[in-house]
Design goal:
- By secondary structure, the chain is of the alpha/beta class.
- The protein contains eleven helices and 13 strands.
- The strands form two sheets. Strands 1, 2, 3, 4, 5, 12 and 13 form a seven-stranded mixed beta sheet that branches.
- The longest helix has 19 residues.
- The radius of gyration is 20 Å and the shape is globular.
- The two termini are 31 Å apart.
- The structure holds zinc ion (2 copies).
- One zinc ion binds next to helix 2.
Length: 337
């Protein structure tokens, strides 16, 4: 596997397009999956922000000089799922070629990126471009918490404190829900989370049996809602054992290998298991509001790597769980941190 900064033709700006000079692009678990497991060339980068340099003749709401981030799920905006806010489930667009940085000809790991105007999301002047690059992953987490309809009385369990798990805990904190219990083996990630979500109860899953631990913490009842953000077999198996009867389990993690699981608990406890993918535009707006209000901060969980160190300091350290969120500084991006 390799990764390269190729010279490609400067993308042309169509009448409804927006061209931005990319400042920062975050690396996501999906990128790691593509990089380490996919084995075919792909233009990467779906968490990014930059400054608009040019707009097409028909673009009205965005102008050169504006700072924008990018909503990556391009879709038809017309079909049932699109109208219901499930852009990622669009019936007309093929996701494997329409999602920015995940198979589409558009990617944020580049000096310039041209996107259709409906994918450019304007950032308020209070937010730096660094925050802009964090909107997408935090919006994925925000969407999943909103769809789970978490209520203030709920006990929530989160498996995995990578960027999505941390974002889920941060979103739960904004509800706020009664208790947030997070299982995470990496010490660095546990430390980052404790600074961001002070009320979270953070547990090393290698030191306890999650099922027994949650029983002890909840007088035997279990969790109302469980978010699986680790993409690991042990976490997957634990989700149904920590859930309370008739509880909800949300799967967000991506697995690279099969899981051996006996599903009886789903029936016995009458659980609801749902999958979750991507984000909504409403969640983008909610995250931006939380950032402006100071509820969401970039410090304590993000770090910057220069483009040249993308593989050793970015992909490989993330793979080992040694970093939480890595933002790649794009050469000449000129973004102010
Ligand atoms: Zn992502
Ligand atoms: Zn659609």
């Amino acid at each position: 596997m390799d990764i390269r900064l190729d010279e490609i033709d400067e993308p042309r700006v169509g009448p409804t397009d927006v061209k931005l000079k990319v400042a920062y692009n975050g690396i996501c678990g999906t990128d790691l999956h593509f990089f380490f497991a996919l084995g075919r060339p792909l233009r990467l980068g779906h968490e990014y922000a930059g400054t608009v340099t040019e707009v097409g003749a028909q673009v009205r709401d965005i102008a050169p000089g504006d700072n924008v981030c990018v909503y990556p799920a391009d879709s038809c905006l017309q079909c049932g799922p699109c109208r219901d806010g499930y852009d990622v489930q669009c019936e007309l667009f093929d996701r494997s070629i329409s999602t920015v940085g995940c198979g589409s000809p558009i990617g944020g790991l580049a000096e310039y990126s041209v996107v259709p105007q409906h994918l450019a999301v304007k950032l308020p002047s209070q937010l730096t471009l660094e925050y802009g690059a964090l909107v997408e992953p935090l919006a994925v987490s925000m969407t999943t918490v909103q769809r789970a309809q978490v209520s203030p009385n709920d006990v929530a369990v989160v498996f995995g404190a990578g960027p999505i798990g941390i974002g889920v805990a941060m979103a739960l904190q904004t509800v706020p829900c009664e208790r947030i219990i997070v299982f995470e083996p990496s010490e660095e990630r546990r430390k980052a989370l404790s600074g961001l979500v002070p009320a979270a109860e953070i547990v090393d899953p290698r030191e306890v049996n999650p099922a027994g631990d949650i029983k002890d913490r909840t007088s035997g009842l279990g969790a109302d809602v469980v978010f699986e953000c680790a993409g690991a077999e042990a976490s997957f198996i634990s989700t149904t054992s920590v859930a309370r009867r008739r509880g909800l389990v949300v799967l967000i993690g991506i697995y690279e290998s099969p899981v051996t699981y006996v599903p009886n608990e789903i029936c016995v406890k009458e659980l609801r298991i749902v999958g979750h993918n991507g984000s909504t535009r409403e969640a983008f707006a909610a995250v931006i509001d939380h950032m402006v209000a100071g509820h969401y901060v970039a410090d304590g969980w993000t770090e910057h790597v220069p483009w040249e160190k993308l593989v050793p300091d970015g992909f490989e350290r993330l793979r080992r769980g040694e970093a939480v969120k890595v933002l790649v500084d794009i050469p000449g991006g000129g973004g102010s941190v």
